[in-house]
Design a protein that fits this description.
The chain has about 400 residues and is of the alpha/beta class. It folds into two domains: about 150 residues, Alpha-Beta Complex (Aspartate Aminotransferase, domain 1); about 230 residues, 3-Layer(aba) Sandwich (Aspartate Aminotransferase, domain 2), CATH 3.40.640.10. About 40% of the residues lie in helices and about 20% in strands. The chain is built from 13 helices and 17 strands. Strands 4-12-11-10-7-5-6 form a seven-stranded mixed beta sheet, sandwiched between helices. Strands 1-2-3-15 form a four-stranded mixed beta sheet. Strand 13 and strand 14 form a beta hairpin. It starts with 6 loop residues before the first helix and ends with a helix.
Length: about 400
């Protein structure tokens, strides 16, 4: 019999592009996890905003088990019922007319960028290929998406990046005006910058982007991989702003933990992705689609979406109380259950120092860059778990402040 895997096995057998915490969770239920030794943790990380309904939610478990006995995978040589149902649900619940299914946010953004360029090529010619994105943005880990993303550290060392990509300043409409012209095919933006520090867009900024894109016949692309699937208290954050994109990408919470991605678009744009222009072997497989269908139907309800906003106020209230005691935060921001706490100047760059201490205190959290503590728990996390988890988080913060 083989021995129980340990954290040391990661260092021995895995490519070293991650540095996971020392504990190995083996079981989850709701907003709590247990490691190999039976120690319990409250999960404020949510698999990086993926576990929208927590761990092993019965609705998702039932969908998975039911579909597992029927059909898993066909490839897109054929279609399948769960994929068609999921596409119909997404179009009926959003601005979109058409859906492309894939397996991750990076794939969804890759598809969106290729679609935007192909649409511009078909309708205007090859000169219309410029893409505008924003500094500190994050759109995935494919080479195209890291190049469009506004964090050069993710593309450095891999050779020449694709051309025709420029970066403006987030929430600065004048910086976009200086770059956009009739050669621009798309502007890609996160309604709330996630990896860039949980920074919400202003109403003026997103409305202005829509106007500029209309003036130059460019496509507005919303990356809602992190903000979508109920994370901000709406099914998608574009509705919070009343600004409708031409293309929207979704992943993370849309599958509640199962790998699913989707690109949503309109009848005006979709024909550019004609037969043979793009594809995904696993995209739209029956198993993933069945789980995502159950997740979307459960999340897009007043109870779940309204609960996310209510929980945000509870978290913010407790974080402000913690801050009054310890003075570690400069600002607490976000929307719904995507919460960022920016570190105060005297703790600049030390958000990551909280994470291992938090694990020791029995709570899992995240960072969004070196200077922002990020919380992205389940949309249905019980309020008692929020309170208890924040008590544990406060103990971790107190230890950091005191140097223990």
């Amino acid at each position: 019999m083989s021995s129980r895997p340990t954290r040391a096995d990661f260092d021995q057998y895995m490519v070293p592009n991650y540095s996971p915490q020392q504990v190995i969770p083996v079981r989850g239920e709701g907003s709590r996890l247990w490691d190999q030794d039976g120690r319990e943790y409250i999960d404020f990380a949510g698999g990086i905003a993926v576990n929208a309904l927590g761990h092993c939610h019965p609705v998702l478990v039932e969908a998975l088990k039911s579909q597992a006995d029927r059909l898993w995978h066909l490839s897109n040589v054929y279609t399948n019922e769960p994929a068609l149902e999921l596409a119909r649900e997404l179009t009926e619940r959003t601005f979109a007319d058409k859906v492309y299914l894939c397996s991750s946010g990076g794939e969804a953004n890759e598809a969106a960028l290729k679609l935007a360029r192909r649409w511009a090529y078909d309708n205007h010619g090859e000169h219309k290929s410029r893409i505008i994105s924003f500094s500190q943005s994050f759109h995935g880990r494919t080479f195209f998406t890291v190049s469009v993303g506004g964090q050069p550290k993710y593309s450095q060392g891999f050779g020449p990046v694709p051309g025709g990509i420029v970066h403006a300043e987030y929430n600065n409409l004048d910086s976009v005006r200086a770059l956009i012209d009739d050669n621009t095919c798309a502007v890609m933006v996160e309604p709330i910058q996630g990896e860039g520090g949980i920074l919400p867009a202003t109403q003026e900024f997103l409305s202005g982007l829509r106007e500029l894109c209309d003036q130059h016949d460019a496509l507005l692309v919303f990356d809602e991989v992190q903000t979508g699937a109920g994370r901000t208290g709406s099914l998608y954050a574009y509705t919070d702003y009343g600004v409708t994109p031409d293309i929207l990408t979704s992943a993370k919470g849309i599958g509640g933990g199962f790998p699913v991605g989707a690109m949503l678009t309109t009848d005006r744009v979709a024909p550019a992705m004609a037969i043979g222009t793009h594809g995904s072997t696993y995209g739209g497989n029956a198993l993933a689609s069945a789980v995502a269908l159950a997740a979307v139907r459960f999340i897009d309800t007043p109870e779940v979406l309204g609960g996310a906003n209510k929980r945000f106020e509870l978290i913010r209230e407790h974080l402000e109380t913690i801050n009054r005691k310890h003075g570690v935060f400069k600002e607490i921001r976000g929307k719904g259950l995507l919460v960022g706490a920016e570190m105060a100047p005297e703790y600049e760059g030390r958000a990551k120092d909280i994470l291992p201490l938090a694990i020791e205190e029995g709570v899992m959290a995240l960072v969004a860059g070196p200077n922002v503590l990020r919380l992205a728990p389940s949309l249905v996390i019980p309020e008692q778990d929020i309170v208890e988890g924040l008590e544990r988080l406060e103990r971790a913060i107190a230890r950091m402040v005191s140097g223990q």
